[in-house]
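Most newcomers find our protein records easier to grasp once they have seen one. A learned vocabulary of local backbone shapes supplies the integers on the structure line. An example says more than a description, so a record of this kind follows:
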Amino acid sequence: MDARDAQQLLTPHGLRLLDDVTALPSGLDIVAQVAQLRKDGNDPALVAAAVSQARLRHKARSKFGEFADTMLFTPAGLEQATRFTVAAHHAGRYSRAGFRRVADLGCGIGGDALALASLGIRVLAVDSDEVTAAFASYNLAPFPDCEVRHEAADSVDLSEMDALWFDPARRTAGHASSTRLADPGDWSPALDWVFARAAEKPSGIKLGPGFPLESIPPELGGQPVEAQWIDVKGETVELVLWTGALARDGVGRSALVLARDGEPSGYHEMTGTGESSDAHVGELGAFVYEPHGAVIRARLIGDLARFLGAHALDEHIAYLSADAHTPTPFADAFRVLEVLPLDSKKISRALAERQIGTLEIKKRGVDIDPATFRTKLRLNGPESATLLLMRLGSGASSRRIAVVAKRT
């Protein structure tokens, strides 16, 4: 979408058309509807923009719920936007710290700024892309204390700000398509500049969850940095670095788990000083635990193992095991039903004997494509199970096994 399309969409007529298209049933023949809208005299470019925007609104419901139907998005802006439930947790940190004026540098379509503003915080939201800034202005219009600027982050006067929030653009410019930028120096704003500003004022810095742990500065501005990985419904969605008064004393790393499977909402957190020791290695027990991604990324597996009374199955693989089951929000638990060699024929026979027709396949430490492996199995019957494909041991004692298990 270019600036002209955005201008048309932001007219009263364009917004009414968008609302009408958004309200259409999802199963409606959209091609026929587009033809009718054009026949009614609407500009073809405006119709295309409204249809694209309506599709983005439907997609955005997973992040913004019902609010998505009154917002505007770019594809890249939606992809990088913080989920509203996560943004609310971020905003809570600023509110509890007493900060009343926050700059959101790289605001995108305004998801984090929305959460901050909803807590009564005055927000200066800045984005270097013209269309994205225009859509952020629309999304933040209900909050008169929010100011949105189309401006480069590194040109903004931050002297009157209490604290900062950064979400550097980690993709090439563009609305229809873009690619990931591997070099943090190419991000917008560049990460070194972000770190320099975060050393001056309390800050939150949103990064991808795969950002290397060894690249996280231990301190900024002479104060420790807190690194927090966040899971939402089983997916590790982001890493946030907290500095200054926004970082908690004694917390070097943390894993925050929101809305586990089966939970409409929820908040669970594991924290560590940053010096967690690894779990000791032992034999396969009656239960296997698969830690959530945030726990793995934060390297808190050893802490989790000690809480569960469990041990690792391999020093390089993030599976834990124990003979007793301890419920935890930080890992999925599986009860071991049968242990087999990693042989598709033997596994197929065992599954057939158990009448397993629905099978979840997980793997760690073995070079196997689960989808291809599934085609070698004869799945038929009313029962369900999970198949854990893994390697145990190292060197000459290493062996590959398959564990037929049941989620607990």
DSSP finds 13 helices and 18 strands in the chain.
